[in-house]
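Weekly sync, protein design subgroup
Attendees: M.S., D.O., the rotation student, P.L. (late)

Item 1: inverse folding check
M.S. brought a backbone from last month's batch and wanted to see whether the design step gives back something sensible before we order anything. D.O. pointed out we never logged the input encoding, so this time it goes straight into the notes. Structure tokens as presented (365 positions):
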């Protein structure tokens, strides 16, 4: 069943105004993307009931949380919404176990046991440690477990991974996906990292200067952002894992009827097994990593060569962004205007889309 979050709100703080009108219907994770100061945290605080200046209406799954015209305002404690912040905000003098107990005490109707959450979040070996003895990633796991234990109807996450290193980010991203799926817990995830959102979100909202400037299915929105300065231009994909080739350290990914190879020589056997068990893998290829050939490159070291057609040519000074279609999938390649002229490229022209296996990137394996 889909969740419905309806936002029709305004909040003004000094020169900054947040004005949001959006109805979201989603079953997984909604991502909120925007640069620093765009209003992402302000939006989460409004939904959570932490901003006293908000006017308008907010409802979640037919429960009215705020309706200022009718003087209705459910306070933050009773909204059944939990929040995870950039910094974990745990009790430093307590152990992991005691921090979790504290959350259980505050929640009267918890259907999830502490043990279930500990197993889900892999915290069993850390229970007796003081939170000050934990790494940043481990602390965020505790913060997530604590938020989940209060059994919220909606979980809001505000840049929860921004202080973490790449490995901790990867673990937490996988954990968030698992928690979202296993507990069927809807989430709104705020980040200025398009990479994190590409891995997690089913839908994406883009905020600029307190207003939504784009929203929709995650791959589509990221592709639309290629024409702005907001992200590094990229092709965003969901692919199926077809086959692992251990001899060459590659995985073969199915994209419609074509295959893409990605490097996995750095993966452990455990990671490779996890990869084969995925229904689908999110990955991305920067437009600067894709090149074009007009005749079939038969003796190239570049392993990925797909046959497609140019559907759009956008030129900004000496840089050109080509939009290419290859069956149902859209690809983006950035080339120089020199190459555009040298190859005499034109709309509807059939071309070979080339990229190295190492150019296919993901954060979750
Ligand atoms: N209490 C406040 N009083 C006045 N202005 C505020 C207040 N809180 C936030 N602002 C302003 O509102 C704007 C949006 O802030 P917000 O924290 O929502 O942005 P953000 O997109 O989450 O940024 P970041 O990614 O840096 O956290 C900023 O210009 C900020 O200075």
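Designed sequence read out in the meeting:
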């Amino acid at each position: 069943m889909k969740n419905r979050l309806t936002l029709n709100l305004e909040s003004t703080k000094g020169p900054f105004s947040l004005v949001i009108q959006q109805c979201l219907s989603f079953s997984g994770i909604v991502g909120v993307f925007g640069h620093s100061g765009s209003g992402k945290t302000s939006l989460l605080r409004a939904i959570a009931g932490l901003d006293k200046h908000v006017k308008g209406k907010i409802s979640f799954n037919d429960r009215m949380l705020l309706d200022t015209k009718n003087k209705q305002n459910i306070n933050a404690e009773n909204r059944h919404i939990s929040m995870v912040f950039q910094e974990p905000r745990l009790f430093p003098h307590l152990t992991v176990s005691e921090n979790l107990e504290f959350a259980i005490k505050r929640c009267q109707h918890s259907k999830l046991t502490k043990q279930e959450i500990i197993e889900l979040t892999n915290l069993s070996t850390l229970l007796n440690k003081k939170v000050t003895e934990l790494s940043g990633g481990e602390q965020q796991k505790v913060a997530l477990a604590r938020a989940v234990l209060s059994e919220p109807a909606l979980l809001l996450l505000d840049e929860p991974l921004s202080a973490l290193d790449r490995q901790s980010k990867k673990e937490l991203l996988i954990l968030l996906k698992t928690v979202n799926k296993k507990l069927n817990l809807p989430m709104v995830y705020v980040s200025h990292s398009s990479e994190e959102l590409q891995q997690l979100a089913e839908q994406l909202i883009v905020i600029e200067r307190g207003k939504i400037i784009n929203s929709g299915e995650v791959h589509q929105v990221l592709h639309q952002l290629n024409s702005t300065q907001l992200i590094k231009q990229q092709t965003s994909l969901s692919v199926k894992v077809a086959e692992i080739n251990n001899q060459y350290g590659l995985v073969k990914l199915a994209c419609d009827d074509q295959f893409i190879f990605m490097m996995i020589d750095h993966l452990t056997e455990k990671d490779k097994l996890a990869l084969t068990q995925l229904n689908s893998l999110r990955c991305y290829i920067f437009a600067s990593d894709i090149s074009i050939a007009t005749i079939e490159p038969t003796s190239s070291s570049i392993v990925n060569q797909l046959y497609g057609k140019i559907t759009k040519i956008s030129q900004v000074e000496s840089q050109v962004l080509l939009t290419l279609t290859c069956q149902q999938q859209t690809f983006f390649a950035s080339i120089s205007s020199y190459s555009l002229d040298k190859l005499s490229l034109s709309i509807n022209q059939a071309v070979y889309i080339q990229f190295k296996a190492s150019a296919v990137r993901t954060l979750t394996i």
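Discussion: The longest strand covers residues 304-316. Residues 13-14, 16, 34, 36-42, 192 surround adenosine-5'-triphosphate (CB under 6 Å).
Action: P.L. to compare against the previous round before Friday.
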